[in-house]
Every structure is written in C-alpha cells, then in structure tokens.
TrEMBL record, chains A, B:
Taxonomic superkingdom: Bacteria
Active-site residues, record numbering mapped to chain: H466, C843
Catalyzed reactions per annotation: pyruvate + phosphate + ATP = phosphoenolpyruvate + AMP + diphosphate + H(+)
EC number: 2.7.9.1
Keywords: ATP-binding, Kinase, Magnesium, Metal-binding, Nucleotide-binding, Pyruvate, Transferase
Annotated organism of origin: Pelovirga terrestris
Named cofactor requirement(s): Mg(2+)
Residue ranges of every copy of the PEP-utilising enzyme mobile domain listed in the record: 432-515
NCBIfam families registered for this protein in UniProt: PRK05878.1, pyru_phos_dikin
Organism classification: Bacteria, Pseudomonadati, Thermodesulfobacteriota, Desulfuromonadia, Geobacterales
Protein name: Pyruvate, phosphate dikinase
Domain Pyruvate phosphate dikinase AMP/ATP-binding: 21-57, 61-298, 313-368
Alphabetized GO MF terms: ATP binding; kinase activity; metal ion binding; pyruvate, phosphate dikinase activity
Amino-acid positions noted as binding Mg(2+) in the UniProt annotation, renumbered to this chain: E757, D781
Length: 886, 886
C-alpha cells in the first residue's frame, strides 16, 4: 500500500529533508526539525500524491488515505496525551497547505480545529481562561465558515463590529468572555441562516472539511495565477499539514517570537530576534504591542526586558537550537517559536532572507568558520542582489539641502536638470545633458524619457507605481510618490512644501535610497568593492571561466568599470562621441554636405577629436582589450527635428533653412531601427568609417610607438546582414589601418570583427566568420528583430504582457533563451565552425543579467560585456554558472 | 597525354554536344553542327583546361598545348587546302572566346588573323578584290593592336578619320584600295611609334598573341564583374576557338544573314530571317543597308527580293538545315550564316530568344508535332516571362484620347487621379482611391508613393530610369520619359504639348505597353488565359504538386484570381475593408473611444459591413478555402496625420481637436513595423478580433444554412511571437465562433491558424503549432525582421546594394533562401513535428516569384499565395519545380 501520510513528533519523523516534492517545503522542514530533536508540535503530513489522487478522484480520497489519516491521528493523540473531540482533554489542530515551491498566502489555512460546544469546556478548564477559549472558538468559526463553507467573511465581521458598538468598545480584546460566548452563538446562527446549513460540531467532519478545502485551494484562481507567473507546474500539487495547536497566549508563562540566527540586515553573527509574552504569532508581526528583544546583544537604553532575562531557561534552550540549526542547515535561519506554559515549541525554520550586505558577510564568515566551502559561499549570494550595492551614493562629506521627501523607489543617487516632458528629456540627453525627469506620474509613453534621464521624480505613485517599477528595471534612481512637491506643467516648474520654486533647467539631486530630493548638484561617491565583498568576488573570479568586459564610451566609464573588475571593453559606442561638446555641429556639417569633398572636410575636423577619445580610453584600459564599434545610428539622429532648431542650425552652418529642412525630411525613416544605419551607411559613405579607423589606429600606433603600450584594437562593424557587406568594409578598414601603421612605422596588430545583431547574421554566421576575427552578439537589436518588437514602442503593451503572464519576463531584460538564445547559439556554433579561434562575446544589456550570463557560459561564449555597474553582477553570475556546471 | 585541342571540319569533330564545360558553348555547338553534317568552316577549340593551365602557369602554356595546336593547325590547313602564312594561298583565321555560360561581349575576339605584307598578295589574287583585301588588313591591324598589343583604339580610328577628311568622303566604304593600303602602312607606323614595338608579321606570333589575349580577357574587369553578377564561378575558365575565316563580302555571289527557325515574336511555324548580299555579319545587324527577307512567307508590297529568289540553291540548302536543326535540337534556333562565292557556311546556331507569346505557341505546337513531351513544353516557358501576358490592357472597343506619348516603360494599363507627391499618393491610396503618380522623375524617396499608385508617369528618364526599373519590379504600369508634358508642382498640374492642362485629381489612363497617356478613365479588359496559353497551363497543372492560392481582399480580386486558376485565397487582409467608403469614419470613432463601451458601439456598426464583405468573397470563391487575416496594422494608420485632417475628423466625431490630436500623438510609434500591431492589438483590445470572428462566422453560417455552401473558413492571427499570444486569442476566437454556430443552429467547421512572420515564430514553431491548425509564412515581414531591413526605407540604399552586387537580388522580390529561407524551412519542420497534418503555405509577395515558388515546393509546403496576376506565374513555376524534382 502506498504511503500517503507521514507522521512526525517526539523526535521521530517518517519523512526527511530529501522529500520536498512529496511533503512540500513546510512538511519536509517539520519532519527534518523533528528528526534532529527540536521540540516541534507533533502532527502529520498528507503528501502531494494525495492532492493528485484528490483531483483524479473527483475531489474525493481513496480509502487508504482515510485509513492512514485515522492512524496518524491516533498516533498524534497518543503523542499529545489528548483526544480529538475529547470534551475533557481536547486535541486542537491546525490544517495548512505546504507546496514544494513557496506560494506565500496563496492557499488556505484553518486553525483551532476540533473546537465545539463540548470541547470548549475542556479548553476552558485546561487554560483556566474562558476569554481565551471563547476567543479561539469564535476565530475558528470565522475562519472555517469562510474557508471551508464558503461564507462571505464580511457577514461575521459585521456581527463582531455590532457587538463592539453595543459594548461601546473599540478593540476585540476589550470584549469579555461572555461577549465572545454570545458571539459564538450568533455566528453559528448566522451560518445556519445564510448557508442553510449547520456549523459542523463533529471534529471529524471539521477535519475532512478543512483538508478538502486546503487541497481545493490549490486550484483557486489566485493560486493558479501565481503558479502561472512563477512557472510552477499545476501537476506538482500541494501537501497538507495537520499539526497539534500550541498557544503562546494562555498566560504569562506563554510567549511567541521570531528570530534570525544572524542579523539579516548586516549579517553580523549574533542571535537576533523579538518576542512577546502572552501573545500569538500574529501579534509580533502586527505591531500592536512593542516586541521585546530576545537578548541583550544589542541592548539600547529604553529597550524592554529581554527574553534571556525574563525566561532564561527557554532562552538557553532556544540559543542551543540556534546553534544546532546553523550547523544543520549551514545557513542563516529564520525561525518562529512559541512557549506554551513554559514549554518551547519550534513552529518553523527556513533560510532567512537578507540584504546583499548581510548575504556577503554571512557567506564569507561561514567559510571562515568552516561551515561552507568557497564555492558554496559564492552560490549563497544572488547576483541580482548585488545591484543594491552598486549604485553611486551621495558623498557623506557633501553639504546637502533636502527640499522634499518621497518614497525610496529605486536606489542610487543622480543629479541633473529638471525637465518635465519625456520628449525633452530625450532630446537633451542626446546632447549629453544630465536630466532629471519630473512628472506627476509616469506612463508607458514616458519610457523613452525615463531611459534618457539620469533619475526620475514623481509626485504620485507608490513603491509599485509605473515609475518605481520601470526605474528599478532600468537600474535608474527614482523617488516616487513625492506628494511634497506641486508640479505646474504650464509654468514648467515645481514648488516644495516650503514654497521654494524649482524651474525647468535647474539642477536637483535625487537620493533614491533615502527617497530624498536635494537642491543642486550634490557630489557623489562611487560604490566600492572592498572587505568581504572583495573577498567573495575574488573567490568568484577564481571559479568562473567566462570573461567579463564592460560597455564604456568614455575614459571615466572605463575607469569605473576597471575598478569593478572589467577585463576589457566589449562595446565602445563611437556615436556618443559625436555628440560631445561642440562636435555635433561638425557632425551636422558632414551630414549636410552635398558631396564627398564636403563630407571629408568635416570628417577631417572630427578626426583629431575621435583620436583623442581613443587615446584616453586606451590609456585607461592599460592594454586590456577594447572593442570599438564604428558609427551605428542613422544620420537623422544627429539632426534637429523641430523647425526652431533647424533654423538655428541653418544659420550656424550658413545653409538656407529650406535646404536643411529638406535634408532632414529626406533622412526621415518610417522604421529607423530597420533603416539606413550601421554598416549600410558605410557602404554608402565609406569615408566615415575610414576616418574612424584612422583615428583608432593613429591612437594605437602613437601609444605603441611613444609609450610602449601593448594594444590590439578590436574594430567592430555593426549591423551586418550579409557577408558581402563585411567583406567590402573589412577591405577598406584593412587598407586604412595598414596605411596608418606604415605611416607611424610601427606594427600594431588589430582585429576586425562584427556585431551579430540580426537573425540573418546568426543564420549565415559561417559565411560571416570568413571575414570576421570576432563576433559580439548585440542582443538588444537581435531581440528587437527576432521578436519583431521595437524597444522604444513596446512600452505600450509589454509591461501588460509581462503582468498578465503572456511573457514570463521582459525579453529586453532577460535574454529570451528559447528564441533569441537559439539564434545566439546557432550563430556561435556556425561562426566557430568556420574559424575555430573566433573570439565571441555578447554586448547587449543582457550581458549584466544573471540568467543571461549563465546562458552565455553554457553555450561557450568567451565573454559578456555589460554596463560598468553591472560588472560585479556578471562576474558573480559567471562564477555561479561555472560552479553549477561542475 | 591530356587532350587540350579539339578539331572540327569536313563532317568530323573531336568534340560533341555533351562537352559544354570543356569546349564552352560555342566550341560545343561548332563540333555538334559539324558532326551532323552542316557546312561549318573548319577549325579547332582549345579547351577550358588550357585556360586553367594558362593561369596556373603564369600565363603560359604547357608544351603539349603548343604541340597539339600545331597539329590541329596542320589539319586545318589540309582541310582548307590553304597554308597559314602561305603567300600564295593563305589561310586566315578568327580567334574567339567561348565560355561554358554565355557572356555576350565580355571577352575579346580577333578576326582576319594571318594577314601580313606577304599573305595580303595571296588574298588579293584569290579575291580579285584589292579593296576588300586591304580593308580586311586594316581592320585586322586595328583589332589586333587594340586587343592583343593594348593600343588605345582611338589612335588608329583618328588616322582613319583623317584619311576620310583628306579624301573628302564620309564613309569607310568610300575609301579606295590605295587609300586603305596607305592606311595599313600608317597604322603599322603608328603602332611602332606608340608602343615602341613592331606590328608582328609572323602569323604564328600573331596566333599565339591572339590566343593569349583571349584567354587573358577571362580576367578583365568587365568579365569579372559580369561573372559576379551572374553567379558564374571564375574557375570554370573559357575555351578559345580558332576557325577558318569565310567572307560574305567578296562579291555578289556572297551574302550573310541571320534567321530564326520560327517567328520569335509570334511563334508561328515558318522560316523567318533576313540577309544581305555582299556583306559581313555586322552589316545585317547595324542597319546601314536595309536587309532583305530570306523568303516570301510574309512578303509585303515593297519588300526587297527574297533570298529564295536571288540565291535559290543556297536558300534550299539553308531551309533543309533549318529542318535538320529543329529536329536535332528540338527547339527554335537562332542561326547565322555566310555565303562565300556561292558556298553556304553555318557560323552559329543557338536556342532563339522569343516573346512569351511565341514561347507558348512554339512549346504547344512542338508537342503537337511530336518533337517534345508535355513536360518539356512546360519547361520551355519561363514563369517570369508570363508576366508580359498578365496585365490588364485597354479595352479595344473603348474610345481613346491620347494626350501624350512617352516610353513604354512597364506594361499594363491603369487609370487614376493625377497626384504629384508620393506622400499624397500614399494617403489617398489608403483611402482606397486610385492614383496615378506624376513626377518629373522619381527617386528612392518616392518608393512608397509608387507602391501606393496604380501607375507612374514621369517626364524624364529612359527605359532604365529609376521609375521604369522600379515600376517593372513592382509589376506596375509605367510611362517614363514623357517629355511631351510639362509638370508644374506649384500649381499642381501638368500641360500637354497641345496645351491641355490636367490638374491634380483629374483622371488619366496610362497604357504602359504603348507608352501612351490618355484622358479620363478608359475601360480596361483583363488578360485571358486561353488558346495555347490555356493548353500549356493545363499541362503545368497536371504536373505540379504545390497548390496556388491568391492574395485577395475583395470579391472582384477573388474573381480575377479564380479566372487565373487560383485554388483558394491564401491571404484576405481585413484592414483594407476598414478603409472602404465611409467605414473609415466608424473605425476612427472606435479608435478614439475612451472605453470598451465606446469601442463596442463603433464595432457594432462595422460588424454588418465586414460580414457583407465576407459573404461576397465566400460566394465568389464557391467553397474554395479562404484564409482571413484579422486586423494587422497599428491603429495610427487609420488616423489622419496632419492638423487639417485631424481638425476635420474632430468636427466629424464631435470630439475636441486637442483630444483627437493627443490621441494621434499617443499612438505615434518610432518603429511601427515593430510596434503595437497584429495580435498585440488584440491582446489589448480583444473586442476587435471578436467582432471580426463574429462577422466571418455569421457570413459562413448564413451561406451554409441558406445556400448549402460547403465552407471551412480559415481564421488567421497575425504577428505571433510567442505561443501564449496565440493561445489567448485562439480561445477567444473559438468561444465566439462556437457561439455564432450555436445561434445559427448549424455546424460550420473552421480552422484557426497563424501567420508566421517573425524569426521567433519560426524558431518556436513547434510550440506555436500546438495552438495553430495552419501556418502561413508572411515572408514580407519575415524578410524585414530577418534582415533588419524596413521595406519602406530600404529604397535609400537597397537598389545600390543590388547594383553593386552586395546582394545578388532584392530580398523583397526573390526569397533569400539562405537566411529567410532557412527560417521558413525550420518553422515548417518544427510546426509539422508537433502537428503532422499542419497546413502550411506562404503569402508574402514571394509567393508569385518563380525561384521562391520552386523553393517552397522543395521544402514541402502545401501552397503558395500571390497576387491575382501572378497566379499563372506561380502555377507554372510550381510545375517546373515538380518536373525538375522527378
């Protein structure tokens, strides 16, 4: 006969810590804690197999199940020395769900089960507390009638409110035992009236009702949706745990508490927790009474007496359990306990959630304590978590003037000019201005402006508002729900509570970690990788195979990235340099020139500027590899769009307005993403790439010749769809590069490669590899084309897609492994089939997203490249991948 | 010893008709003609292997080659009874290239080789015509010095001109023998002076010089480019033919001519050709003298005497050869002949080029004559050629008023309102207006307007102008270079030579086949598939496996397509119906509605209109399958863009201007191709597809219930990237369809499928096929996304790409088999792996392009779908594919 029911209690358990699938997380842990000798209230677990049988059986049970439950209940009665339904010495139980994967709050629970008009007397006698007994009884009826019988919870809640009014009191706790006794009768009458059904007095009927309700709640809409969103298969099913009730609220020798085996905020190794005398679990969390510390480890003046003073025996027992748990689970635990009449019960233990700081400290210290290995330590810190540690913050030395406070919606600090529309934010950002986008609230139409801004400030909206969610997704600093400011779009200004007026263009600073708005451009400090963090990262580096480079366009970014451990630049976008300072004017002259000679004249002016950019970056990277992408965006991105700006430009370059205007119109594209850009531009205007290659090679030659640098520039040609494009441009580049080397009289090795960012490039990678010495997958554009999805426009519906579970994740955040990933894999394999030593990496934003990094490791890429602040994230993810791959 | 040289002459040839690769096309044909007993001037062919040896050997020859040439030359001397370099009885030869694939005019030729100051005397004596002899000699020097010695041809041409001036004559033929003799001396002196090198007197030196020059010309830039454009591999090499010269210009018993074994224009089975007495080959082609007919088959008053009258014996011999050639080659031949002193020589035979009409007639008649099989007949007509036959033409009965004449740049006839800008043409076309785009000339920026227009008229530009080339590519009627009209863009009008003014909005008609511009909307007749054409198509249909459907949105298009043999509709685009008549107003109301109720009110008004559309189409298709694509374009396409139109709309729907304007702006997208469209719209606004499905099913149910139709509507959901999108929309559609069936009380089977038009859909086709009963590959959008190339914007550079050979073909015309094709194949295979009975077709414009149709056959698709006028093209291409596949 199959085993459907697993008992636990008195140091003995049928199950063990390998049975998550069968017993669910909760059931497994209860069995495990019991086995290692912890005082767990006994009980039994009905397995996930019962759940499957339940649904296969038209929501009923095989006879074996009923039999096994009867036996387990008998054993439980014996262990507790009480009788289920015994009027003198009643056993009360809880019935709770417990699925293999955590689904907090999604399924149903029934407490205090076993109470009826007979057993209540036993509880009164035993507790000597009629008020406690009737309060438990009325709570049971409320819970059971709602969860099991399907009664609208409002009805009984309303009766309770009436009773309080009648008694002229505000709180439940102010009702007397008699009041509650009366309520029990009223509740039952109301059930009968509403449901035309008696409230069950038979404990067996109560028990099976509750069990079926909990199994049934596996399929409630809330749980179904949650599973869909979290990728939990419906066929797993849930287990059901029936456990003896214990009470922390039966007098002053009772208590309840929660604790962490180490400090979850800082990771410091001391026993951290709170408890309340004569209270139930909810009371600690609800915050109606002030909890007391469990010990004096961090005692502060004014703290209430600690458990180690008030209940020293129980505390000593608990402290021993803490040690036992850490040695057993080799990780920081989050525990719940109850003391019933001086006896300690463990209700729960699980791996404790912690801040990134704490995670790192705990991992490193546990290695030092010999509890875990370095590999385990690395795996203990989730790469995603590091993000918390990797944003700039305000310089503690700086003078600060806080002008408003809102919600700390997305961490980090940023300064910029106040701008009130997304369009203007985008336009100014293009001109390399730092911008803070200020809106009453944001909507999907603002996405491009949010992308462009350094930070976002909204007057309305909470921690899960559009602005907050999107900003966190982008890793941008955000203060949301800042009701303290009044925004006037017409006047282009906002006013603080103190009446200070901040106009468009003025500088402010946001502290997204504190939710503060500050006046002016407050100095910031870069986050640092030091101490335990540095130790952990060193371990991570020792395990990983994948290299981590950075996407950086300036010497400053290069330096930041190197400090974060970048091993080279994987993507240096040259177009950003075209916007620097006054260059944009020269670039525009180039675009507006009507002939080759005119374009060359302008390019000649840009050449020395580009060269100095590359000198700066090469110097900063000190010989590490640098991949430079030649000009990529369509030319119209460099021209102004509205008539005023066009007219200004016309005056500046001395061309008639109508001519400039017609140029702008001629360059207009319906789908610029799929237009005349990347290598297509260079096929039409080879002189642009010629100038860029010349600048790169002159910079390299100069450093090699004059400063004994060892540099191998990697010249990257973007948007190749057909090998012929690369063939032509490669020939041009080689000609120019060799000519520069000859002129400088030095031999500088260089690589010419391409960005693989179109499906066709992946499919024909074998041909393209004939002309390319390296590939870098541009997974941003590859996602756009593979999905047929414009990142700029997706804001209208993509958030909704993710929310409704149409897509599990935003494919611009986490690489779509099934679709885009297959193309990357295929492109990689085909490229290597032609050229076994082809260097291959990715440089889309996915390069800093952990699941994508792990994918890149798995398929065998050489490196990932990501923004400077994501470099440690990628390093850690790469280490995870390597360790898990062993 | 390898055989490098193949002789032919006197009925004997070393080579045969299987040796194209070795002997080249010309050499193979000369050998073949000799073998079947035709009077071919003897000679020998140096094989393509010699060419390879030549290049492998640093442009020199192995000794065996020299030996074999010497032997072949001896044999030739013997056959001709003349001596090479013999002063009394000299043998003159031609040296010509002849590659395996035809490369007309790309390589070099030398004629009259063997002449020098000694042998000229023999020629004079034999021809008894010193003028002829010296004229041949000076021509030889001009040709040889240029081709072999590398002298600038202009120099000797200049001397010739001087001589004519000196003599006061205009034509070469007016120069005397003495003049020409003097010129020979002058030419040699000029060679010596310019090149510092004597003109070679030694015939052997001349021969080897010419041979090397001809082999060398295989690598001249012209030939290299031609090969690249035509996909001919360089390693094939060319052969060289050395052949005895014969002369048609040695007196009145000499002649030269060209002929076709059947009429190449009509295909009629009679001997068609022209000849000239006492003339060389060039003279017939050059048109200086009027050629005479070879016979009286089509004799017209005023024709010159025919060859069958003037040279009856030679004509009889030639007529016999005609029969022999047709029986031998089983195809219409294009031949060249020369008569030297009464003796007929065959210089060339090759398969004759012909019009589409002729191709069909010849193929059908040759089957009837028992010359070829039906399969061969089908293969004889190129699907591309059919295009000539499949355009509407002006009704011969209609009254016509021609107002201007230009070039017949692209065939067919079209009428519409005169419009002068591409943008306006596009806008009006969207509103279902017929438009003729009139421009001075067109440029890539006009492509979208050309797409939208029914026909294009330009004042400037020839048969290969932008307008002409693009229009032919699009299959649009075009009259180009119509200098007879003066266009005034400011006044929005054009003026004819007769002074007639045609204003914007007036109707004109273009006859692209005649190059005529006509006033008003002249009635047109559809092309017909009848007579031989119908016979051939019936044979084609009997061989093909692939079904051919059509892309049609109206009952009229459906009828045209059915008349052309369409076996169903593969793509019925419902959005076109949204523009019909006044509906656009209601559609706009729907878009501008702020809530579901408002949208539904508008959709309720559209429902009966859509239903009547489907009724019409279903009726016209009489039970053939009809695939209906639900709404695809982004909503902003339905809204006006400029302020005037927005204001008009605001008044019409009674909403404030600012509100309409903000709606328009909100819907603006950066890359609409990759935006909120297709199934994405329906995820956001399910009510739109609900209405469409309701209309489709109501129409189907009505016909099934009331008219006993047998219909299985195929409902197609566009732009699916992820199976979840299809899952949701499929559920909605099934719910609606089943509800309609129930309401009508009939059981109508329907299919729900999807358009596969994104790379991700191809890659995940196995998952998508779980929810789809059919796939239709939308290769237009799939090409755009796979290439990352917007069709609307590609006009800026794609023509240049094709011209420069970066891409061999425009991927929007011929399916890119390597890239896009791989995705189609993969999508097909993965889809079928999930659902073995999945119905699969393509409905992009490639469905009517022959090479793409053949690809679809090869990978196993069920059908292709194309525009009505391409249906016969696709049917024939599908037959080719099936026959070649056997």
């Amino acid at each position: 006969m199959a085993k459907f029911v697993y008992s636990f209690g008195e140091g003995q358990a049928d199950g063990d810590s390998t049975m998550r699938e069968l017993l669910g997380g909760k059931g497994m842990n209860l069995a495990d804690m019991t086995s290692i000798g912890l005082p767990v209230p006994p009980g039994f677990t009905m397995t996930t197999e019962v759940c499957k049988a339940f649904y296969a059986n038209d929501r009923d049970y095989p006879d074996e199940v009923r039999e096994q439950v009867a036996n387990a209940l008998q054993l439980l009665e014996k262990r507790m020395g009480k009788g289920f339904g015994d009027a003198a010495n009643p056993l009360l139980v809880s019935v709770r769900s417990g699925a293999p994967a955590s689904m907090p709050g999604m399924m149903d629970t029934v407490l205090n089960l076993g109470l009826n008009d007979q057993t209540i007397q036993g509880v009164i006698k035993q507790s000597n507390d009629p008020r406690f007994a009737y309060d438990s009884y009325r709570r049971f009826i409320q819970m059971y009638s709602n969860v099991v019988m399907g009664m609208d919870g409002e009805i009984l809640e309303h009766l309770l409110d009436q009773k309080k009014q009648q008694r002229g009191v505000a709180l439940d706790t102010q009702l007397s035992a008699d009041d509650l006794k009366q309520l029990v009768a009223d509740f039952k009458a109301s059930c009968k009236q509403t449901l035309n059904q008696d409230f069950p007095e038979d404990p067996q009927e109560q028990l099976w009702g509750a069990i079926s309700a909990v199994f049934g709640s596996w399929m409630n809409p809330r749980a179904v949706t949650y599973r869909k969103l979290n990728g939990i298969p419906a066929h797993w099913g849930t287990a059901v745990n029936v456990q003896a009730m214990v009470f922390g609220n039966m007098g002053d020798d009772c208590a309840t508490g929660v604790a962490f085996t180490r400090d979850p905020s800082t990771g410091e190794n001391y026993f951290y927790g709170e408890y309340l005398v004569n209270a139930q679990g909810e009371d600690v969390v609800a915050g109606i009474r002030t909890p007391q510390p469990i010990n004096r480890a961090k005692y502060q003046e004014g703290d209430l007496p600690a458990m180690e003073e008030v209940m020293p025996a129980s505390y000593q027992e608990l402290a021993k359990i803490r040690d036992l748990l850490e040695r057993h689970y080799k990780d920081m635990q989050d525990i719940e306990f109850t003391i019933e009449k001086g006896k300690l019960y463990m209700l729960q233990t699980r791996t404790g959630k912690r801040t990134a700081h704490a995670a790192i400290r705990i991992a490193v210290e546990m290695v030092n304590e010999g509890l875990i290995s370095e590999q385990e330590a690395v795996l203990r810190v989730s790469p995603d978590q590091l993000d918390q540690l990797l944003h700039p913050s305000l310089d503690p030395q700086a003078e600060k003037q806080v002008i408003a406070k809102g919600l700390p919606a997305s961490p980090g600090a940023a300064s910029g000019q106040v701008i009130f529309t997304a369009d203007e934010a985008e336009e100014l950002a293009r001109l390399k201005k730092d911008v803070i986008l200020v809106r009453v609230e944001t909507s999907p139409e603002d996405i491009h402006g949010m992308h462009a801004a350094r930070g976002i400030l909204t007057a309305r909206g909470g921690m899960t508002s559009h602005a907050a969610v999107v900003a966190r997704g982008m890793g941008k600093c955000c203060v949301s729900g800042c009701g303290a400011i009044k925004i006037d779009y017409e006047k282009q200004q906002f006013t603080t509570e103190a009446g200070q007026v901040i106009k468009r263009g003025e500088y402010i600073t946001l502290d997204g970690s504190a939710g503060e708005v500050l006046l002016g451009n407050v100095p910031k400090v870069e986050p640092q990788v030091c101490g335990d963090f540095a130790t952990l990262m060193a371990w991570a580096d020792s395990f990983r195979r994948l290299k981590v480079r950075t996407n950086a366009d300036t010497p400053y970014d290069s330096k930041v990235a190197r400090d974060f451990g970048a091993e080279g630049i994987g993507l240096c976008r040259t177009e950003h340099m075209f916007f620097e300072g006054d260059r944009i004017q020269t670039v525009r002259e180039m675009i507006l020139a009507n002939d080759l000679a005119g374009r060359k004249r302008a390019l000649d002016k840009i050449l020395p500027m580009q060269k100095s950019d590359f000198l700066g970056i090469f110097r900063e990277m000190k010989g590490l590899p640098v991949t430079i992408r030649l000009l990529d965006p369509p030319l119209h991105e460099f021209l102004p769009q509205n008539d005023d700006d066009v007219s200004e430009l016309a005056q500046a370059v001395g061309i008639r307005f109508s001519e400039v205007k017609s140029h702008v119109e001629k360059l207009h594209e319906f789908n610029p993403m799929l237009g005349h850009r990347g290598c297509r531009l260079a096929i039409t205007y080879p002189e642009v790439y010629d100038m860029q290659v010349q600048a790169i090679m002159e910079a390299a030659c100069e450093l090699v010749r004059d400063e004994q640098f060892d540099i191998v520039p990697e010249i990257m040609i973007p948007l190749v769809a057909h090998v012929n494009e690369l063939r032509i441009l490669r020939e041009n580049a080689v000609k120019m590069a060799d000519a520069v080397c000859e002129r400088y009289g030095v031999k500088v090795k260089y690589l010419i490669g391409t960005m693989i960012e179109l499906p066709r490039a992946c499919l024909t990678a074998d041909a393209i590899a004939e002309e390319a010495e390296f590939f870098s997958f541009g997974t941003n554009d590859l996602t756009q084309t593979t999905y047929g999805l414009s990142r700029d426009d997706a804001g209208n519906f993509l958030p909704d897609y993710v929310e409704r579970g149409v897509l599990k994740k935003d494919p611009f955040v986490a690489l779509d492994q099934r679709g885009v990933g297959e193309l990357v894999k295929l492109g990689f394999e085909r490229g290597r089939s032609t050229r076994p030593d082809l260097k291959v990496g990715i440089c889309g934003e996915h390069g800093g997203e952990p699941s994508s990094v792990i994918f890149c490791h798995k398929i065998g890429l050489d490196y990932v490249s990501c923004s400077p602040y994501r470099v440690p994230v990628a390093r850690l993810a790469a280490a995870h991948a390597a360790i898990l791959d062993q």
